[in-house]
Amino acid sequence: MSTATGQGADTADGGGSSPAMHERVLEAVGIAIASASLPPGSRLTLEGLQQQYGISRTVARDTMKVLESMNLVYSRRRVGIVVQERALWNVYDPKLVRWRLASDRREIQYTSLTELRIAVEPIAAAGAARRASAAERAKLVALGAELRRLGEAGDLKAFLAVDIEFHSLLLHSCGNEMFAALDGMVAEVLTSRTQQGLMPFKPRNEALQAHEDVAAAVARGDAVMAETAVHHILNEVRNAMGLS
After folding, report:
1. Nearest 5°: phi and psi at 57?
2. 58-67, pLDDT tens digit by residue?
C-alpha cells in the first residue's frame, strides 16, 4: 500500500476533497471489490484509504458511506470496515454493474444482465404496446428510424446514445415501475459493450430491423409482435457475444 506525504490527508481538503477525487477513489475501491481484488472479509480503514489515495478523511468516510449504502461493505465498532459477502450486494445498482463490467469478471456480469434483459424487456415491450401514450409510440418510431440511420453510417457514439434512449423508453412506457427502474442497468451494459469494442463497426441489419419492428409493433398496439421483436434483439446480442 502506497503512502501519502507526511502532511496527512486531512490537510488535503483542497484537491484531496474534490468531487472528482471522491469519484476516482470510489471507482477504484468499487472495482477492486467487484473484481475480488478485495474479496469478502477484507478489512479496510479510513487511515489506509487516506494513505493509499492521498485523500482527506472526509473523502475516505464519504467513499465508505456510498459503498455501505450498496451493501458492498459494512462497518462494526472494534472491527472496522469489512467487504460484504457477494450474496448481500445490491447487484441492481448501476455503479456496481459498471464496476463489474470493468473487472475481469465481466463475462459473468454480461451473462447475468443479458438473461435479465431477456426476462424483462420482451414483457416490457408488450406492456408498451398496450399502455404507451401516443407521444411515446411516435417517439419510439422516430428513435427506431434514427438507429437505422446512425447504424448504417457507423456512428457508434451517437448510436449508443439513441439506443439507450430507445430501451429506456420501452421500460418507462410499459406501465411497470419496477421494469422502469432497470433503465440504469440497461444503459450501463449498452455503454460497456460499445466502450469495450464488443459492438460491430456497423450494427447488423437484423438488429436494426428488429428495433424498427419493435417500434412499429408498439405504435400499432401489437403486443405479441413487440414481445417477439425484442426477443430477436436480445437473442442477437447473446449470440454476438458468445454467451451461453
Report:
1. -65, -35
2. 999 999 999 9
pLDDT digits (tens, 9 = 90+) for 213-239: 999 999 999 999 999 999 999 988 888
- How far, in Å, CA of 120 to CA of 107, rounded? 20
Cα pseudo-dihedral 146, 150, 153, 158, rounded to 10: 150
CB-based contacts of 205: which residues, under 8 Å, 6+ apart? Answer: none
| Reported pTM | 0.83
Q: Residue 25 and residue 15: Cα distance in Å, rounded?
A: 13
Reduced to 3 states (helix: H, G, I; strand: E, B; else coil), residue 73 is strand
Q: Contact at 8 Å (CB) between 76 and 65? A: no
Polymer length of the chain:
244
> Which residues have a Cβ under 8 Å from the Cβ of 63 and sit 6 or more positions away?
22, 25, 26, 29, 49
Grid coordinates given for 128: 408498451
Instruction: Give the CA dihedral 140, 142, 145, 151, nearest 10 degrees.
Output: -80
